[in-house]
Amino acid sequence: MNAHFENSKGAAARHEQAIGALAQRTGVSLAEVRVLFTEEFARLARGATVRSYLVTRAASNVLAALRGKLGGRRPGIP
Questions:
Q1: How far is it, in rounded angstroms, from Cα 24 to Cα 36?
Q2: The whole model's pTM is what?
C-alpha cells in the first residue's frame, strides 16, 4: 500500500474499498482511480487535523474530478 495511507490494514482496506467503488461506478480503470485517490488523499492529509473523514472527502473529490473528465455526465447513473 502507498506510504501516504495510514499504517493500518483496516485503513488500507477502506482505501481500496473506496478506490474499487469509484472505479466500478465511473468505469475508469482501478490503476487510474488509485493514482487519483492516492494523490488527493495525500493532499488532504497534509493539512488535516481531523483524519476521520479523509477517505470520504478524498473519494468525493476524485468522483467530482472524474465527472469533469467524463464530460459532466454523472457516472453510474443512466
A1: 15
A2: 0.78
